[in-house]
Design brief:
With about 325 residues, the chain is an alpha/beta fold. It has 12 helices and 12 strands. The strands form 2 sheets. Strands 1-4-5-8-9-10-11-12 form an 8-stranded parallel barrel, surrounded by 9 helices. A two-stranded antiparallel ribbon has the order 6-7.
Length: about 325
């Protein structure tokens, strides 16, 4: 018998000798309960219209949205994030349509909350879908006005809560907005409405397809959002933003984008130990989907990417691939 070099007692490959053992010892797991499906709603005749830069993602009218929610719930996805795509004729410098009772988003939310009381709805709080300049707040003399914007966001939040939103998600990155929104909710008998703060939202190049979907890309043009979104180089600043929003009354915090910022996600979770979400944003999804379509990557890269979010500390994940992953990969 051939003599082999003596090895240490620890052989980690013993833990990988079968699929059953690998599954038994898996440290991070992804379930349908971890998935949040972003959905776009528009006032349109068609039940669903394709979004070129977000393949397999659609803008829905109200009836199409309800049908899509029914399908998601059958698959075991019980949380959706809603984003309005507003016709350009309804946009103005003040984002006035955000505060109109006839806003199609409020009508849809009201109907959804009655038809699907067990569904968790996350409603975006921001003005960029409604402004003709594409910024998340009031824009004057080349600057986004913070305090004046926050007052409008407070009113928008009350209308969303009244329409039945389970969770309000301020994504605008204005200073102090979480505290103002929390005070408004408390003062108007919406004490149970949760706030999911986009606390660590970076000024990223990965948002392009989303801006196509909500129709703000053309309005924004070559302008950037550097004055209110975080410099991608800065993790300490992100932690400060998270701390401020927690102190102001956020129930859940979010890191956005996702995979390029897993270090931030891990640090936020370890530092604050608060429910922490991550957003696999439109650019991340689109480039993975394109690579799959080209045959450069296999479909499994989608679920692998979300498992990385879980490993880094995410309690839940917003992903445009949520429906696909629930259909193809997850049993529970």
């Amino acid at each position: 018998m051939k003599t082999y070099r003596k090895y240490p007692n620890t052989r980690l490959r013993r833990l990988r000798q079968s699929d059953a053992i690998i599954s038994l010892l898996q440290e991070s797991r992804l379930s349908k309960h971890d998935l949040i499906q972003p959905l776009f709603i528009a006032e349109q005749k068609e039940k669903a219209t394709a979004i070129d830069s977000l393949p397999s993602v659609y803008r829905f009218n109200e009836s199409g949205l309800i049908r899509e929610i029914e399908e998601l719930m059958k698959l075991g996805i019980y949380t959706v994030a809603l984003f309005p795509s507003v016709d350009s004729s309804l946009k103005d410098p003040l984002g006035s349509f955000a505060l109109k009772e006839e806003n199609f988003l409020y009508k849809a939310l009201n109907k959804i909350s009655k038809e699907f009381p067990e569904l968790i709805t996350i409603a975006d709080v921001a003005l960029d879908p409604y402004t003709d300049h594409g910024h998340d707040g009031l824009f004057e003399d080349g600057k986004v006005l913070n305090d004046e914007t926050v007052e409008i966001l407070s009113s928008q939040s009350l209308m969303l809560a009244d329409a039945g939103a389970t969770i309000l998600a301020p994504s605008d990155m204005m200073d102090g907005r979480v505290g103002v929104i929390r005070n408004a909710l408390e003062s108007n008998n919406f004490k149970d409405t949760l706030i999911l703060s986009y606390a660590a939202k970076f000024c990223s190049q990965f948002y392009g397809p989303f801006r196509d979907a909500v129709g703000s890309k053309a309005n924004l043009g070559n302008q950037g959002k550097t004055s209110y979104q975080i410099n991608p180089s800065n993790i300490e600043e992100a932690l400060q933003e998270v701390a401020l929003d927690i102190n102001e009354g956020a129930d859940i915090v979010m890191v956005k984008p996702g995979m390029p910022y897993l270090d931030v996600l891990s640090k936020v979770k370890d530092t604050f130990n608060l429910p922490t979400f991550a957003y696999q944003v439109s650019g991340e999804y689109a480039m993975l989907h394109a690579a799959i379509q080209k045959g450069w990557l296999t479909q499994g890269v989608m679920i692998e990417s979300l498992l990385c979010f879980k490993r880094a500390g995410a309690d839940a994940i917003l992903s445009y691939a949520s429906k696909f992953i629930a259909e193809e990969y997850l049993d529970g």
